[in-house]
Amino acid sequence: RAAMKSLRFISAEALVSNAELARRSLGSLAHHLFPLLFKASYLLEQGEVIHDLVENWPFADFNVGKLLGTTVDCQEDLSHRTCSVCLESCLTGLRDYVLNQSSPYVKRLKVVDLTGIKDVEVQVCECKKTMGRWARTQLLSKLCLELLVYLQQRQCDPGSLEISIDVRVDLFVTERNYELVMQALLKKCSCPLKICCVAFRSDNLALQKFFYIIKLIDPSLLRKLEVVHNVRLEMEHLEMLFNSVHFPLLMSLTLPARTFNARRFTATEEQMLTNIGEKMGEMTQLTELSMSFSILTGRIQQLLSPLKTPLKVLDVSNCSLNHADMAYLANSFHANHFEALDLSGHNIPDLYPSIFFKLLSHSSSVLRSLTLEDCNIQDTHVNMLIVSLSPCQKLQEFRFLGNPLSSQALKHLFTFLCELPMLRNVEFPVPKDCYPVGVTYPIDDASLCRFDHQKYESVAEELNLILLQANREDVKTSTPLFGSYDAAVQETKNELGAYLINSFKETLEKFTNSLNKMS
């Protein structure tokens, strides 16, 4: 269904569709038309018009998320379109805003906000070329440095040097763009465009470089910190980070796999964990925490009890939680506030079915997203699952990949899922009866694709028919075999792959050297 457009917006589209005419007309247009023309230009991918609109922006703020979001004149939300043509035009237009000495408008711009751009899997822009978070970080840093060089080499209008614009941005730094971003941050004071990092993600980065750049970004402004793949941040490093850097506004924290390993805790490490919990307790804004693939057996209370603000999002997937950990979560003050919960990798039906039921009943009034992948949920557990999910009337996303469920059990479950009024997204496993007899769970990567694809398609059709007959065409279903889409991983997968190969080579070399020494 086409989004509603006002007559004003349709007129704006007609104007910007003729790029040459639109660019010539900018000087005579009323200020209040600029936001309208910007969204119309973005929709039609008119890069040159976007550039000129930004270069002559007449307002004190330029918030891309708000400009592209749902508006009175155009209900379509374009903030998920990371169109390369449009975004590059935005950023080069911003650079030229500083340099443009002949603009008929007084330079009022003080704040640019690029944080509202959403990276999604399917792009509908015509050019089909996206500019993800990593590429936006790269281009913005490059333009800031180019701007400095330009201002230093040429005799520009002194007014250009007096311009100071805060550019709020979500940075994504890896080994490949580290040097460029670091230089841009080091020279921030001299540059009219001042990078203000609101969210920071780091992958494939040496620990020393991570510690250096985290101090450069001004952590006092940081709301979201993601340290994800191939940053060897272990517990002692995390304690050092929290002792040396303060994050007063931090709302969301994601830690890499194996940050914690409770199996080998010494007395010193016990104290370390307590200190980390206390430091997190000082982060009064912290409401989202992800610690997947760490070993936290029996330590959840020690880590989370110092928190003064209830968590809304918790990812403890594959953290080897025991009964005491789950009991703490179910009985803690966090339970009534969980909006998103990931308990993947835990044998919920066998180890703590009643505690799980209690946890969901406490969080049911607010729970939006639930992930239970590889939880050994079998056909005999489906009724228990339905009873547990029944109170969760606000659930929007339910992911349960990797569970040994038959086609029949999935149909039974889908019949129930139709009754959840807010549900919009379901990720379900390949039915067990589509795999060869004797397959064991969790299924290894080599066997994951070895199923009867024709039978799967047939079952998927039946499941969608159940939704259709219940008038639930609004529910999207899928079976992403290798996990949900991650825009950051997708954008940097080549670098990630190269890093993993190098790590493997280094490990082999060390092993070979050890063998040589022994012989």
Structure description:
There is one protein chain. The protein has 519 residues and is of the alpha/beta class. Among the domains are: 7-131, no CATH class; 135-232, no CATH class. The chain has helices at 7-16, 19-25, 34-43, 47-55, 64-68, 84-99, 133-153, 158-162, 178-186, 207-216, 235-244, 267-282, 300-304, 323-331, 348-351, 353-363, 382-389, 407-417, 445-448, 453-469, 487-491, 493-518; strands at 61-63, 111-113, 165-173, 193-202, 224-227, 252-254, 288-290, 313-315, 340-342, 369-371, 397-399, 425-427, 476-478. Strands 1-2-3-4-5-6-7-8-9-10-11-12-13 form a 13-stranded parallel sheet. Belongs to the PRAME family. LRRC14 subfamily.
- Secondary structure class reads alpha/beta
Kindly state the percentage of residues in helix. 40-55%
Strand content: 5-15%
Poorly predicted ranges: none
- How much is the average pLDDT? 93
Distance between the termini: 72 Å
- Globally, the shape reads globular
Tally of extended strands? 13
For the biggest β-sheet, the strand order reads 1-2-3-4-5-6-7-8-9-10-11-12-13
Overall radius of gyration:
26 Å
Protein name: Leucine-rich repeat-containing protein 14B
Keywords: Leucine-rich repeat, Repeat
InterPro entries: LRR_dom_sf, LRRC14/PRAME
Organism: Pedionomus torquatus (Plains-wanderer)
Keywords:
519 residues, alpha/beta, 13-stranded parallel beta sheet, 22 helices, 10% strand, globular
